[in-house]
Structures are given as structure tokens and as C-alpha cells.
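RECORD TYPE: inverse folding
INPUT: C-alpha cells
STRUCTURE:
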């Protein structure tokens, strides 16, 4: 293998790391190291792809609590309002009122939009996110992880918008969401489509053919985590539709709809129009062919009637 300095180089930082010895989803100990450069493992049984070793949760909470973490969000507040309204319209196809819980709500902007229809609740590990939710939107958001939260009620809608890829245990998070859902409730999960999006698939093909700078021994579609400020987000998991479906089924949930998550935020009207066109082209392809090559995926899940959480 030829290592190209630019494409294989991994950013370094001094983050405290932890190593996993079991798959979080199926508990298998058969873990393949598929990309040593970017510290990527894959479960040999269920196919779950994840970062290992990875920064500890303490490092991650510290990273997301930086006072500047949400500055880009606030600068894009108008565009993000449009984004949250798009997602809200998806929810309204299934539920028009009731109690809604947004897990990992960030600044709470989605809750501020959704409270026109729902009684809203939220959780967030970032202290700076919780502060913005309170000061800017007048929201009382629980600061902490979902597992430590007791609401004393169940929810008609639970949302995980680009959260599951960040949490240390997707299995615990989904299991706790199921506990918090009413039996008629819905769970919406949006995650990046890191592995099967068009760019990743193209790079994997080029790597397989040994072409150009893609020849280095890495798993294309993911990048190595860095907590040194060079990245805005930390993705600990990289999901495929099949793995997501398997994860949900293990917790007594079944997928009732899958689509693309219109995650784009345009910095100007021209960018917005371009992003919208790209999204709709991918949506059309997915509708006609059944293959999602877009950057994101969105799943709507419901409790199974006979499903027993494992
Ligand atoms: Zn597994």
C-alpha cells in the first residue's frame, strides 16, 4: 500500500481515549479493525461501524460545552428555522399534537419551533447549549444524558436528530427512548449516511481500483476524530440502514418509514436553492430505485405489538 501524506494523515490531539471490546448493538466480541488510520472498527456479526478507541465521554462533554460551540448555529438561525420547519412537517404527517421529547436538542431551536404544536421537552449534555436554550428561547432543557433523566411521563413523539452518531451507547439511547415512548408513540431518527452516500461509495470504488490518492488503507466516508477544534462535531458511530433497523428491532421497535433527512442550511438564497435541488434529486432517485445515496437518512419507528426489548 502507498501512503499519501495528505489523504492518510490523521489529526492528532491529546484526548483521553477508551477502548471497546464488545459491539454496543449485538454484544459480539468479534471486532474487525477496518481502518487503523482513522481508528474505525466493524462488528463481525452485525456490521456496526464505530470509532475504537475513542475519546471518553468526559472529553466529549467538555468539547460540546465550549462557549463557541454553537456560534455557527446562531449565525445561521434563520436558515436553521427553515430546516427545523422541514423536519417538523415530517413529524406532523404522523402526529399533530401531544408530548414531544427532543434528545440532544443543542440550543433548543427545534423545540422553539415545535412548541406551536406540541408540549415540548428536551435533553442536552452541553452546558452552553442548555444556557442558549434558556436565555434565547425561554426553554427549560434537562442538562445530562438521557439515561439519567426521569420525566415522570411518556411521550407521543421522541426525536433524535443527528444525535445517535454522537452518543457513547446507541443501544442504551434507543432502549431508553423506547421506555419513554407511549405504545402509540413514534421515534424519529436522523443520522448521516456516511458509508453509503454517493461520495463515500465513489471513493471506495476508486480505492478498490487502486486509483490516485484513494489508495491509502482507510475506510472512505469517515474521518478521524479530532478534539483540537479542527472539527465541529464528533461522530462515534457510522450507521447503515440495515444496522439501524437491527438496532431498533432489538429494542422492540420496527421501522415504519425511511426517507432522507433534508438537513441542508443555505448561507444565501442561491446556496439554499442548490442544496434543495440536490436533495430533491436524491429523493427522486431513492423513491424510484430504493437506494439512498444522499448524505443523510431518516427513519420513523414505532413499538412492535409483540416485540420484546432485549
Ligand atoms: Zn454487532
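DESIGNED SEQUENCE:
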Amino acid at each position: 500500500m502507498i501512503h499519501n501524506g495528505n489523504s492518510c494523515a490523521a489529526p492528532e490531539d491529546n484526548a483521553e481515549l477508551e477502548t471497546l471490546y464488545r459491539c454496543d448493538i449485538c454484544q459480539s466480541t468479534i471486532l474487525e479493525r477496518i481502518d487503523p488510520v482513522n481508528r474505525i472498527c466493524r462488528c463481525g456479526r452485525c456490521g456496526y461501524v464505530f470509532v475504537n478507541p475513542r475519546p471518553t465521554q468526559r472529553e466529549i462533554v467538555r468539547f460540546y460545552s465550549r462557549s463557541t460551540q454553537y456560534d455557527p448555529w446562531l449565525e445561521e438561525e434563520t436558515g436553521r428555522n427553515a430546516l427545523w420547519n422541514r423536519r417538523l412537517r415530517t413529524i406532523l404527517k404522523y402526529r399533530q399534537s401531544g408530548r414531544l421529547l427532543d434528545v440532544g436538542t443543542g440550543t433548543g431551536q427545534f423545540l422553539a419551533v415545535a412548541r406551536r404544536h406540541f408540549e415540548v421537552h428536551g435533553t442536552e449534555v452541553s452546558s452552553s447549549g442548555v444556557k442558549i436554550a434558556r436565555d434565547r428561547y425561554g426553554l427549560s432543557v434537562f442538562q445530562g444524558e438521557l439515561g439519567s433523566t426521569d420525566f415522570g411521563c411518556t411521550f407521543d413523539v421522541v426525536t433524535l436528530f443527528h444525535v445517535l452518531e454522537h452518543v457513547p451507547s446507541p443501544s442504551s439511547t434507543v432502549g431508553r427512548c423506547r421506555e419513554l415512548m407511549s405504545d402509540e408513540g413514534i421515534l424519529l431518527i436522523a443520522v448521516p449516511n456516511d458509508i453509503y452516500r454517493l461520495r463515500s461509495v465513489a471513493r471506495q470504488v476508486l480505492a478498490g481500483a487502486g486509483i490516485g490518492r484513494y489508495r491509502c488503507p482507510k475506510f472512505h466516508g469517515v474521518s478521524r476524530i479530532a478534539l483540537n477544534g479542527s472539527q465541529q462535531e464528533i461522530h462515534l458511530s457510522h450507521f447503515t440502514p440495515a444496522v439501524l433497523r437491527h438496532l431498533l428491532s432489538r429494542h422492540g421497535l420496527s421501522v415504519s418509514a425511511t426517507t432522507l433527512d433534508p438537513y441542508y442550511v443555505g448561507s444565501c438564497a442561491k446556496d439554499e436553492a442548490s442544496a434543495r435541488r440536490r436533495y430533491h434529486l436524491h429523493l427522486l432517485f431513492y423513491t424510484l430505485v430504493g437506494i439512498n445515496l444522499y448524505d443523510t437518512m431518516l427513519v420513523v419507528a414505532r413499538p412492535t405489538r409483540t416485540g420484546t426489548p432485549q
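NOTES: Residues 23, 25-26, 28, 43, 45-46, 48 surround zinc ion (CB under 6 Å).
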